């Protein structure tokens, strides 16, 4: 059974900026957040960068993100996989492995 994630609002490009997200994830013992969003090359990228800097193992469902163009989204996903070591696969493949919670950016 999958847990429901708390909703958080964000005011900047990263879900970690000026929020209690890091405290919440640590409280829930999350080590591998799943990051989704509608701006792969902006909000998802900034959120994943901040998660990586806090030593989280990042998972991004490739079919749960989007950008203005497919090329922009693909370029951002490639960058996050190469630099941030993000696990990027389709949602169903990520869910087979399991995760404690998810983060929407």
From TrEMBL:
Superkingdom of the organism of origin: Bacteria
Pfam families reported for this sequence: Isochorismatase (PF00857)
Keyword annotations of the record: Hydrolase
One term of GO molecular function: hydrolase activity
Chain ranges of the Isochorismatase-like domain: 12-81
CDD domains reported for this sequence: cysteine_hydrolases
Family matches, as InterPro entries: Isochorismatase-like_dom, Isochorismatase-like_hydrls, Isochorismatase-like_sf
SUPFAM superfamilies according to UniProt: Isochorismatase-like hydrolases
Name of the molecule in the record: Nicotinamidase/pyrazinamidase
Natural source organism: Neorhodopirellula pilleata
Upper taxonomic lineage: Bacteria, Pseudomonadati, Planctomycetota, Planctomycetia, Pirellulales
